[in-house]
Amino acid sequence: MLNSLSRLVVLLVGVSSAAAFSQSYPSKPISLVAPYPPGGGADIMARVLAAKLAAQLGSSAIVENKPGANGNIGTAHVAKASPDGYTLLLATTGHVINPFLYRSTGYDPIDDFSPIALIGSTDLILVVNRNSPFRSPGEIVEFAKANPSKLNFASAGSGSVPHLTITMLEAAANVKFTHVPYKGANPALLALVGGQVEAYFASLPSAMSMIKADKLNAFATTGARRTTLLDNIPTIQELGFPDVNSDIWFGIVAPSKTPAAIAGQLESAVKAFLFSSDTKKQLAELGIEVRFQGASEFASLLARELSKWRAIVQRSGATLD
Fold it and tell me: Alpha helices, DSSP H only, in 120-259?
């Protein structure tokens, strides 16, 4: 009886302490880790989100850049951080791709994190030089069938989402391209404009200005539906390639075992600011569509994405060790 009573007291004290802790949260600045260098798309988005989160919580939030190893260094840092709600990670699609590119990332993409919320996503878009003879994805595929490995397809790097999307198209159309990896989106786009490569699955944020300036022809986006940011462009599925489906998503995760009350408070804060017209406008200017999912849905998405990208990375043969 005494043992049962003691356990009950301990349980009640723990619940009371957790409740008191969550009520005082946040009492110091929150760090949102961007695992990529300053100045890039992920960094800019992190700064928008940090400002919005701080305003919603009535606190302060800073962006902490921890680049390196394709995002692994910053991600591993958050995985090992105290689960108190003061260290968060801006996670992207690379979160579930890197574990299959590296022998060791320093973290488990599922077990080491508590999902907070999915923020939004951006499609890739198939683009060619404005003087290209190709006028559709179908024409690119037909050329590749007649000329195996003769068409040069750029990517933002081995194992990047653009590279893996090339692998999807090769499998869907039973063709072979020559993959030409560059160190990032800008060099790949410049090579395309300069005629060194014939095609590229670019991210919308990186290619939008060149498309609008008529330096590139855009054929198709890779999402499940047309993007509202370029709704005159069909999806590649509409054009006969239903198995080509990729995007780059952005979400916030915390270290595993973050108290449920704090995780819930963060999720509610994200949901509150995400649907404001101001936030939608800011993200749209970055080429990102708002796509909110709460913790439970986001956790399911992470599990599905992990399974999806495992098979694609294995098929591509890409490694980064």
Answer: 137-146, 161-173, 185-193, 204-212
To 10 degrees, the CA torsion angle through 101, 102, 105, 111? 50
Q: Report the alpha-carbon distance of residue 171 to residue 264 in Å, rounded.
A: 41
Positions of the chain with pLDDT lower than 50, given as ranges: 1-2, 5, 8-18
In this prediction the pTM is: 0.88
Work out the number of other CB atoms within 10 angstroms of the CB of residue 275.
11
Give me the pLDDT at residue 27, please. 96
| Boundaries of every domain in the chain | 29-122+248-316, 123-230
Say if CB 137 and CB 144 are below 8 A apart. no
Token pair 């940011």: residue: 229
What CATH class is the domain 29-122+248-316?
Answer: alpha beta
On the question of a cis peptide bond just before residue 26, with omega within 30 degrees of 0, the verdict is yes
pLDDT at 9: 46
Cβ-in-10-Å burial (0-12, 13-18, 19+) of 231 comes to exposed
- CATH number attached to the domain at 123-230: 3.40.190.10
Is the distance from CB of 75 to CB of 91 less than 8 angstroms? yes
The answer to whether the beta carbons of residues 134 and 143 sit under 8 Å apart is yes
Residue 3's pLDDT is what? 53
User: Looking up tokens 């559709």, which residue turns up?
Assistant: 136
Amino acid identity of 187? P
Query: How many Å apart are CA 20 and CA 25, to the nearest integer?
Result: 9
Q: Closest Cα partner for 52 from 261, 293, 287, 283?
A: 283
29-122+248-316 and 123-230, same CATH topology: yes
Decide the pairing of beta strands 247-255 and 113-129.
antiparallel
